[in-house]
Every structure is written in structure tokens, then in C-alpha cells.
UniProtKB/TrEMBL annotation:
The lineage of its organism: Bacteria, Pseudomonadati, Bacteroidota, Flavobacteriia, Flavobacteriales. Transmembrane segments: none annotated. Residues 1-141, 222-272 form the UspA domain. PANTHER family: STRESS RESPONSE PROTEIN NHAX, UNIVERSAL STRESS PROTEIN UP12. Pfam families: Usp (PF00582). InterPro entries: UspA. This is Universal stress protein. Belongs to the universal stress protein A family. It comes from Flavobacterium taihuense.
Amino acid sequence: MKRILIPTDFTKYADEAIEVGAQIAKKHDCEIVLIHMLELPRQMNDAITGETSIPEIMLFKQKADETLKNIKNRPYLSGIHITEVVRLDSAYNGINNYSKQNSIDLIIMGSHGASGINEILIGSNTEKVVRQSETPVLVIKNKIDNFNISNIVFASDFSKETKKAFQKFLDFAKLFNSKVNLVTICTPNSFKSTSAARKIASEFVADFDMPEYTFETYNESNIEKGILNYSNEKNTDLIVFCTHGRTALNHFFTGSISEDLVNHATKPVLTFKI
């Protein structure tokens, strides 16, 4: 892991993500890219070549550049290679395109607790960034003074299509020397016996060089509640799951489960695209 992208709208929630990014960067010698998406009002965007809009646009960009430079000078970022970027684009398009074009290894976003991603990533942008990003996305829910992820839960149905994403997850877990808790959530609509689920998981992990791990099935009324409750019972530091891109999530994560987890979890959430 060499380059971390952190979108910021200059709120305290983005600052919490930057602080976590700083801890990771110092520990693993990474560069941090701070990116601010300058989403202009529609009427200004439509008249971007008009006589009165350009001075206002330049003023907004100048202010954003100044604010990023002030952030760069914060003591906790001392010694880290920081790149500042301001783009005129929507949040999702700007973040996703920059990540693809610049070999970003991890995106870190701040979140406004159970209310969802903060103003820079509201509405459909939350779903788009989390579900569609080719780059792993780490969502920070609260201020974390010591980002220590020694205990991780990875929730999955362990289907073959998740194998590539699972290897990326293992690389991340090994980077932090984390214990891995694998879990399959069984609901009334997706029930598997414990023996059947264990067989699927055992055959799945046989293809990987596994760190210390456990596997369990967990029964709950829905998948989201199952993951959250299991994570709380195991006192894990991080919740990890896979997303399925533009066609929504795979049959294990259907509907809006990814967005619900990001919004309702109190712990950090990490997603990998299948």
C-alpha cells in the first residue's frame, strides 16, 4: 500500500478520516492525497463559460487550495508526503476517476454516524462510491486516536466470485497483522445448515495462505443486523465485506445492505469490489 486518497469537504468528519489516514501512512510509509471536489451550483455549472461565473469559480478554488495547504501543515501530518488536489466535478465521478487514474491503493472517507456519509457524499454518492469503487474504501465513523485493527470480521457467502476480492482483503489483514473472523449470516430467506456453511467456507479458504482465523455461522432476521450484532459480540475493530459493482451486490448482499451497513455501523467499515 503506497497511496491513500482522502476526500475532504473540510468538516470534522473528513478530519477524522484524515487523522486515521495519517496513522496508516506513518506506519506503512504511504503518500496521502487530499482531494476536495468543488461541486458548483447547477446554475453556475451550466454557465461555466459565462462572464460572471469564472471569477466566482476561481475564488472557490483559491479558498479550497488555501484550506488544503492549512490542513497539510497540521502537526499530525508532519513527515508524510501530502498531495493536494482540487477538482471541479461531482463527488462520485471525481473520486472514482482520480483513484483509477492515479494508482490509489485505499480510499478513506469520513462518515456522519448513523445519518450516512457527510455532505460531500450524500444520497446516491454514498452508494456509488462504496459499491462501485475499484479501490478498497475505508469508512471512518468516529474519531479514532489509535487506529488498531487487530480483530476483523469478514462477512460473506464465500462464493467463487469473491475470491479475487478476498485475496485483497487478506493482503490488508496481513499488513496490519490482524486476526480474521469469517462469518456467514443465515437468515430465514438464506438459510444454510452450520455443516453446509462450514464446508463451503473450508473449501473456499483452502486456496489461500490464511492468517489466524475463525469461522462461524450466525442466525439473524436480516444480514445487516447479523453482521452488526456479530461484530459487536466479537468486539471486532473493523467490519469488512465485498460489493458487486454496478449490478448491485451479489446474492449475499442484496438491496441496500452495503449502504445500510456503512450508515448504521459504529465501527469502521471496509469494502472491496468483486
